[in-house]
What does this fold into?
Amino acid sequence: MSSQDIPDENLPAEQEAAHGAVGVADEKNPFANPGLPPHEHRIQDTDERAAKRSERVVALLFTVSMLATVAFIAAYVAIPSDKSIFVFPIGHLSALNFALGLTLGTALFCIGAGAVHWARTLMSDVEITDERHPIAAPADVRAKVIADFKQGAKESAIGRRGLIRTTMFGALTLVPLAGVVLLRDLGPLPGTSLRHTLWSKGKLLVNMNTNEPLRPEDVAVGSLTFAKPEGLEETDEEFQTEIAKAALMIVRLQPDNIKDKRELEWSHEGIVAYSKICTHVGCPISLYEQQTHHVLCPCHQSTFDLSDGARVIFGPAGHALPQLRIGVNDEGYLEALGDFEEPVGPAFWERG
Ligand code: FES
It folds into this structure.
């Protein structure tokens, strides 16, 4: 008996009956062979031991994928980023990059290879023809599609082949973990650092251009002065991180022009200090209009009224600029009287 004559118990009766029968497919018999050579059974269709062998190969590939994903995570955690290795014929390269590429490549390759081997050796390979239909499928065709889908699921034997099913789901579940561990590269968790800056009671306001502590007489009406906390030097390792939160705008207003009562109390002789960081998406504010007391963010044109608590009068910013309470110390220098009472920059929470 040739392999072509062997009935396949996994196939539906009408499909099995159509094997080898040359004819034109129609709705009644979509499995009719449209002139192709007669269908030939594979060894796995007729020999259960060969099918088992294929099943083990597929399971092995999915298992290797799982191990490679675990190795990827282990390499990411264990290998220092500055370690290099020599790989012939490429030469010296980062050991971490090499390990990550090798393990993730293996994990993805094995999932693909396992799926291909599964489809080629164990899933149904019977030729099926179907007529073209109008794009809008009628209800009975949709029902047929669903029936075909269920039939396909049945023929894939995913229900019967538990080993493949388990290892495939294991491999597909583990592979996304490789992306999850890479989230660590977004940087350290912010903790409470977003709520605090370098400003504290007694810290002097230092002119960012001259690097000199500011006195009230250094701030002229109509000028816009940028300041940083004393002790923060551009050569400091944390300068960029800290200045992004602590940068100040200093402006002198006529006290009579200050409409907001709290703003007046937190100022010194009309000198007000506000965060320079826009509350929209954090651009540094740099434009000041003396007549209107407005400051403008150049990124998306948010405009803040410095004579009225720096409230937003135009643009996409959702919050007023935080104000720093200032005074003058015994030596006549401008000093902070505490930290900002609100988080600076773009707010991702509702401010109280
Ligand atoms: S960052 Fe200032 S308006 Fe967008």
